[in-house]
Design brief:
The chain is 34% helix and 17% strand. By secondary structure, the protein is α/β, with parallel strands linked by helices. It starts with a strand and ends with a helix.
Length: 328
Amino acid sequence: MKILVRLPNWLGDVVMSTAFVNAVRQIYPDDQLDVIIKKELGGIASFIPGIHHVHPFSKQEHNGLSGVYRFGKKLRSEKYDLFFCLPDSLSSAIMGWATGAKKRIGFGKEGRFFLMTNSYKKPINLHRADEYVSLLEQFTGKKITDRVVKLEVADKAKKNGLVIINFNSEAVSRRMPVDTGRHLINMLTHTFKSTKFALVGSPKEKDYIDNLLAGSEHSDRLENYAGKTSLEGLCKLMASAKAVLTTDSGPAHLANSLGVPTIVLFGAGNEANTAPYNKQHLNIIRAGKLECEPCVRNTCRLYGIPKCMQLIDEIEITNALDFYLKYA
């Protein structure tokens, strides 16, 4: 058979969907597995085991529902047998319908059930990786017990000795406030005197990183990678790091899926649904001092800035990092 999977649209969700890709490989080990992925995230596909071919999709090049339809129609010549739709959007279902796949499988969200040949109810109160796997289970009637969220970097470099810091997030409510982040960076460089730290971020996050580093007390042990790495480069940098300290964001999932010791600072997000999946070498920290935690909103409506991030215990962060630097 030929199988096509429409991967999610956000970095963290793509990483979590590797559990689904791995499960498909378990059930259909000898069949061709192709994926559709957002063009900006295409670089990560080379690190997902078991993929045969990648179809990059650009909203700029295929704008609106008509563009989505045209993109899907281009794939009709591939004659796919199965199309799995992981995003909940109507547009992704239209894309699958346009491919002409014999069976189109997805959750019945946004009134799109009529575009699917097999539509299922989305389970509640599950981790997102388990949500994705449940779609395959409902379709095949088979239970998936071996669930793995994993990226593989083939040419792993020698450990670079860095501790990577990512205080960014697409959502303001999950991003570390500048003053708090600056204080934490100074505290960490003062506490771990022989450790070098690297701050990462996309090109659009460079100004934020520059503000974090302004007036740093130990700048000789701080490296600024903001806007300097591709997604592939970020994966390789993380794979060779000692540990990663990060907010609830896509890079948190990257680090965890690569097996790197990961400390994740949670505020607005709900770790029961979107925490990095692998429990080994994972430490989740939240303040837990506000009744509104977790609000799961993208902006803080109550305080204006994410106070839940400001209140995270710096001693808890220090102890977690100290443990990984000594024992992991």
